[in-house]
UniProtKB/TrEMBL annotation:
PANTHER family xrefs: ARABINOSE-BINDING PROTEIN-RELATED (PTHR43649), DIACETYLCHITOBIOSE BINDING PROTEIN DASA (PTHR43649:SF12)
InterPro entries linked to this entry: Bact_solute-bd_prot1, SBP
Protein name: ABC transporter substrate-binding protein
Species the sequence originates in: Fervidobacterium pennivorans
Length: 462
């Protein structure tokens, strides 16, 4: 009798552990599948009653979700790291706003406001920042010493930046490799209210007249006017196609890669270029774009995001995994350790990422990585970051920029028109598109918000 009792108790415990376990699914890019399996394994150490299974979101996140719905297949509970246009899945009603879970969460306070609110519509949070990229300047420390120039401070001004580029421009060297897109991204640095292409996220409109666009163009023109300062400006494909030497080849050599060969002081790039930047044969550091002292530090950041779907049967468990991926210090550090385990090459970490949280435990571990000191410094200043990847969140962005602003910008760069003359007309046309797109999006959003409570009642069986 006693043996039978204990056997029954064991069976009850086993069945409770089996039936008490929740399984959630997460969609991930194919090339990241093995990494996220390792992340999930760390997650289940903390939450053993939650199992994470993965599906591959090919060919892209939004295309994958569309295909799932069209095939009447369930959506995954969590979608990992997207960099696509968020308005589309939001307008389809596929995303679960997570504000109920963020409320009173002590860890969310370490996510800077600009990032925490990056994916909000109508004061509802539809996604969370998962991985960041900084856009800035790689500086050649070896060449700096060779030219007898002192290392500049990270908070270097525009005037200091110009001075360094001028002093490093000689018959043998150039100050910077290229200035492509420099004006567009500097529009986020040289004005306290605007971001990429002088878009004002508070007013939800472009401000080419009073934003950062005009001063950014002025700075770009000034730098490009100095002979030899921009190395890539010396290239001439027309001459090369004729078999003739262009000024770049005459200065650096016929088959030269001046930046790699340590003949250019700075390079305009982002942390997304790390796979080849870490192979450079000289010492370097990463710097923010130069600031206007009257405005202070504002450095451009690109934000990849993650979200949970509106149809999840297990919202609490799905959110725990979403948080683990985004701002839970335990999850962020676990992921950094997984990347760190991939080893060191040329003195640098092969793999790493920039987290979206300033939690002291995360900052402390981040400081131990073999990555540029400037990136570590910027994480400590993350509350000064300004988002520039507005195409991820602004309805109508692509049409307004590529159809209206970009063609005008190209004419400005070629000197065919003066930016001051075309700014007002251009922003008016672009803002008309943005306004119309927002009206259409708002209508869909209102319907989605109205239907969401009923959808959740059906799923939760209430």
């Amino acid at each position: 009798m006693r043996k039978s009792f204990w056997l029954i108790m064991v069976l009850l415990v086993l069945s409770a552990s089996i039936f008490g376990k929740v399984t959630i699914t997460a969609a991930v890019w194919s090339w990241d599948l093995e990494k996220y399996k390792k992340i999930a394994a760390e997650f289940t150490k903390i939450y053993p009653d939650i199992e994470v299974q993965f599906v591959v979101n090919e060919p892209d996140v939004n295309g994958f979700l569309t295909a799932q719905v069209a095939a009447k297949k369930p959506l995954p509970d969590v979608v990992v790291q997207s960099w696509e246009a968020l308005p589309y899945p939001v307008s389809q009603g596929w995303i679960y706003p997570v504000d109920e879970f963020l409320k009173n969460d002590p860890d969310i306070r370490y996510v800077p406001k600009a990032l925490k609110e990056a994916f909000m519509y109508n004061n509802k949070t539809y996604a969370l920042p998962e991985r960041l990229h900084f856009q800035g300047i790689y500086i050649n420390l070896d060449l700096l010493r060779k030219l007898n120039l002192t290392k500049p401070p990270y908070e270097w001004s525009v005037e200091q930046f110009k001075l360094y580029l001028r002093k490093s421009t000689t018959k043998e060297y150039s100050g910077i490799n290229h200035l492509w897109d420099f004006d567009n991204v500097m529009a986020a640095v040289l004005n306290k209210d605007t971001t990429y292409w002088s878009f004002n996220p508070t007013k939800w409109e472009f401000d080419l007249v009073n934003g950062g666009w005009l001063p950014a163009i002025k700075l770009q023109k000034e730098l490009k006017s100095i002979p030899g300062l921009v190395s890539d400006d010396l290239k001439n494909d027309e001459l090369r196609n004729k078999g003739e030497m262009d000024d770049y080849q005459k200065k650096f050599g016929k088959d030269a890669d001046a930046f790699r060969e340590s003949k250019v002081l700075t390079g305009l790039h982002g942390t997304w270029d790390w796979s080849w930047i870490r192979t450079l044969p000289w010492k370097f550091d990463f710097y923010p774009l130069p600031l206007d002292p009257k405005i202070g530090l504002r450095f451009p950041v690109h934000v990849n995001y993650a979200f949970m779907t509106s149809t999840t049967k297990y919202p609490k468990e799905a959110f725990l995994f979403l948080k683990f991926l985004t701002y839970d210090p335990r999850g962020v550090i676990a992921r950094l350790k997984i990347d760190n385990a991939n080893g060191i090459e040329n003195g640098w970490n092969i793999d790493w990422f920039i987290p979206a949280t300033m939690h002291p435990d995360v900052v402390s571990y981040f400081d131990s990585l073999k990555i540029p000191d400037g990136v570590k410094w910027l994480l400590k200043k993350l509350d000064k970051a300004v988002r520039v990847d507005m195409w991820k969140t602004v309805p109508g962005w692509d049409q307004a920029t590529w159809d209206v602003i970009f063609p005008v910008s190209e004419k400005v760069r070629r000197g065919e028109v003066q930016p001051e003359v075309v700014a007002a007309e251009t922003q008016e046309k672009a803002n008309k598109i943005i306004k119309e797109a927002w009206v259409e999006f708002s209508k869909k959003l209102a319907e989605i918000e109205k239907k969401f409570p009923e959808l959740r009642k059906q799923i939760e069986g209430k």
